[in-house]
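Class prep. Sample record?

___
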Amino acid sequence: MTPTLGATPLESVQAAFDGGRRYLAACTTGLPPRAARDAVIADIEAASRGGVDITTYHDTVERSRAAFARLVGVAAGRVAIGSQVSPFTALVAGAVPDGGEVLVAEGDFSSVMRPFLHTGRGLRVRAVPIGALADEVRSDTALVAFSLVQSATGEVIDLDAVGDAARRHGARTYCDATQAVGWMPVDATAVDALVCHAYKWLCAPRGAAFLAVSEDFQEWIPPLFAAWYAGEDPWTSCYGHDFALAHDARALDVSPAWQAFVGAAPALDLFESLDPALVHDHVTALAARFRAGAGLPHPSRDSAIATWADAGGTDLAALSSAGITASGRSGRARVGFHVFNDEADVDLALEALGR
């Protein structure tokens, strides 16, 4: 990204996007920055002329892997790449002993919990209220699986409390940070495994996902999806059964969706260039301004997402009529504020709601 002359860091990143005004749905899907858009268009145009270069695609995947690793504070070798959250959840499910208990949060997103229900190995999935997650970890809990930021409500989990409880009881932790990485600081070393799909707050195309996993926990995860890209040398792992898996988290790689990573690499570069604390302060201040104007309670932990009861969809319809892109989840209206938003977006939303 080329900084705008004389601009603040936040203004420079806002200038990297063409859109954003009235768009309050990064929690549904992020807006691609120009660099990501241009990279995808250039790739499609080159491919249409016969300019497909698999080596360049591979380099783009590795660039994305390294950027994500730096964003969450781990080495690139601790990150596996894939296309969705649920296949990674299925891999993690393979590390839970037969009949083991998986503790989840009630109402959490399906990709982080449902694969545990369908292993055929009798895993016991126990759902508890979000606020009670840390208190409900028991000696027979094998894994605690949860989203750091809840998709339906925007509630932020007390990661320290959950991690401390899991360690006391010898349980592993699996965290979905899809609704967190990109607007709040996230440390993947706080959990055994952290998954993230980059198409929301990291503003990448859909189809670029990452799993950061500790070396110790990886030893228990069966590489069930291992194909050529999971080899120590992918280029000599394309045929036959006799090849070495990668020595690090790349052994859990799923063959990449090339074009998704073409757009993901510049998007991740953009967010890696930012101070995550600066982004966090900006987006949570906007959400707090919205909550104050809408008469909504402030959450126990700051969140970029604001939700409220809207069973009939009246408020969501009012926002839509005003040209504001928002979303509805689980009987609630939902807005999310990102780097490309400012106070004018808050005021437009409040005006649309008659507040």
